[in-house]
Cysteine synthase (Chondromyces crocatus), 382 residues
Amino acid sequence: MRVEQETPKENIQRERTQSLRGAAEPAPRSADPAPRSADPAPRSADPALRVCDSVLDAIGNTPLIRLSKFIPSPSPQCFVKFEAMNPGGSSKDRSAREMLLAEERTRGLEPGAVVIISTSGNMGIGLAMMCAYKGYRLIAIVDPKISPVNEKILRIYGAKIVKVVERDQHAGYHLTRLKKAEELRNKYPDAIYIDQYDNQWNAEAHYRTTGPEIARALDGKVAAIVIAAGTGGTVMGIARYFKDHYPETHIWAVDEHGSLALPANSIPQPRYLNGMGASQRPANYDYPTLPKYLDKQHYVGAAESIQAALDLARTEGILAGGSGGAVVTVMKNVMRHAYRSDQNVVGILPDHGSRYTADFFDEEWLSIRELPVSLAVDGDEP
Ligand SMILES: Cc1ncc(COP(=O)(O)O)c(C=O)c1O
C-alpha cells in the first residue's frame, strides 16, 4: 500500500488549521523522523554561547562596553566592564566563588554547613547564590545601609539576615558588624566564617578572571584601569595581574571621601556609596607593598558619583550603581585628560543600578542626606 506523504507546505497548513481548531488530535508523526543522537548537543566554542554546568560556571566573562557619549571628546577610548552581567548581579560573585571553593578544599564542607559573612550586600548575594546551589546555610550580617532590594534578594536565596543597628566609633557600622560576627562564631563553632577583608582568595578571583578577561578583550593594550576600592579584592587582584603581565598599565583606585580603605586618607567620615570604602584598613591591601600596585588614588563624593551614574544611564543606557558612578566620574573628569585618544582606558562597574531604586535613585533618600542630585526628567512638572 502506498503511503501519501505530506509536502512541508501541506504540513504547516495542517498544523495551522489544527491549532486554530484547538489541535484536538495530535499531528501524525512523520514517517521518517530525524535521527536523534543520544549524545548531548555539542558545546559551542564561542564563549558567548557557552553551556554552563551550574550557576558557578556562569560567573565571569562579562562584557566590556565602549562609552561613546558619556565622555566628551577628545578622550581616550573608554570602556566599562559591566559586572552586573554576573548571575548574582555583581563582581562579588567571582570572589564568593573563589573563597567558598577554597573553604571546601581545606575543610571539606558538607551540605547543611553554616557559612557566616559580614556584608553590605553584593558579597552576601554572591555567597547566598552559591550556598543555595551547594546546600549550605548562609548567615549574612548586614547593617542599615544595605539597599532594601539587596536585603530581599538575600532572603529569596534563603539566607538568614542578622542586622546590626548601632554605629561604631567611626560613625559607620563596619566594626559593629565585625563584633556581631565574633558573637556568631562563638555561637556556631563549626561555622565557616568568611572574612572578605582579609582573604587571599578574594583578590585571587580577580587575578584569575577579571584581569585576564580585560587583557584578552583588548589584546593587552590597556593604558589604565580604574577600580572602586572596598575590601580591596577587585583592585588588588586586577592590579597584581596587570603588574605581573602588563606592567605598563596604570592602576587607578577610587574611594569615597571619609573611607579608610586607601592609605591616602586617615580621617573617617560617614559614607553613602554601597560596597565602596571601609571604616578600618582591610588587610587585603597589603599596605607596605601597595605603592608597587597602585599608580593613582582618587577620592570622590557621593553626590557626584550618583549624578554620574544617572548621566551614564541617560547617555549610554548603562545603569550602574553608586560605585560604578564613582568610577565613571573619574574617567570623565580626570582620566580623560591624562590619556591620548589612541589609548584604551577601562573602568569596572561593580553592579547594577536597579538595586538602588530605593536609595541612591530615590528623591526622598537623597533629600534626607542633603545630596544634591536631581532625578528630574526633562518635561517633568516643576
Ligand atoms: C557595589 C560595590 N562596589 C564596589 C565594591 C568594592 O569591591 P572590593 O570589595 O572588591 O574592593 C563592592 C564590594 O562589595 C561593591 O559591592
The domain at 60-85+204-368 is CATH 3.40.50.1100 (Rossmann fold). The chain is about 35% helix and 15% strand. Confidence is low (pLDDT under 50) at residues 1-6, 12-37. The beta strands are 64-66, 77-82, 114-118, 137-142, 160-163, 192-194, 224-228, 250-256, 296-300, 344-349.
